[in-house]
């Protein structure tokens, strides 16, 4: 026998001996059905990789781009909604304040419908007197107007003409 035939015989003997040593369960896995199952799962995996003709990395990039596009699409209307909601809150507060002011003015209007109230206001604020009455003005020391002191940060009103002030600023 030649060298090749001896090698073939040895390989066959090894294959038979290894198959004989394996348990029955392991021998079943090497049958055609298992190979067929493996073939189908391999085809499925390769089919998944062929979706849209892209690899996993490319598909992940496309998904990321779609998610970013959706986020940007939602961001502008959401910002507009939140801005308008805060503006509505501010306007509602202003409306409540104005309604309170209207209520106060209506109450004041109702007070001024009384002729006695109008007369009292005229005597107090405008210093009116009825014909035949003698008005008296009593000034108490605390009633005198106090000279207004300049407030901090406010300069006193300059005295004299501008050229006099200029001359005094130069001569010291």
From TrEMBL:
Residues 1-44, 141-162 are annotated as: Disordered. Keywords: Coiled coil, Membrane, Transmembrane, Transmembrane helix. The keyword Repeat does not apply. Residues 1-14 have a biased composition (Basic and acidic residues). It comes from Amycolatopsis minnesotensis. It holds the Pfam family DivIC. Residues 88-115 form a coiled coil. The keyword Zinc-finger does not apply. The chain crosses the membrane at residues 60-82. This is Septum formation initiator. The lineage of its organism: Bacteria, Bacillati, Actinomycetota, Actinomycetes, Pseudonocardiales.
């Amino acid at each position: 026998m030649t060298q090749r035939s001896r090698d073939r015989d040895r390989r066959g003997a090894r294959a038979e001996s290894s198959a004989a040593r394996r348990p029955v369960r392991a021998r079943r896995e090497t049958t055609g059905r298992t190979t067929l199952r493996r073939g189908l799962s391999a085809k499925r995996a390769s089919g998944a990789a062929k979706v849209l003709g892209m690899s996993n990395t490319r598909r992940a990039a496309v998904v990321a781009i779609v998610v970013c596009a959706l986020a940007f699409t939602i961001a502008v209307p959401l910002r507009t909604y939140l801005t308008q909601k805060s503006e509505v809150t501010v306007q509602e507060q202003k409306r409540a304040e104005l309604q309170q002011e209207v209520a106060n003015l209506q109450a004041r209007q109702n007070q001024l419908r009384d002729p006695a109230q109008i007369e009292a206001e005229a005597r107090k604020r405008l210093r009116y007197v009825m014909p035949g009455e003698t008005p008296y003005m009593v000034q108490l020391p605390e009633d005198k107007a106090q000279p207004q002191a300049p407030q901090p940060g406010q300069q006193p009103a300059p005295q004299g003409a501008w050229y006099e002030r200029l001359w005094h600023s130069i001569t010291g």
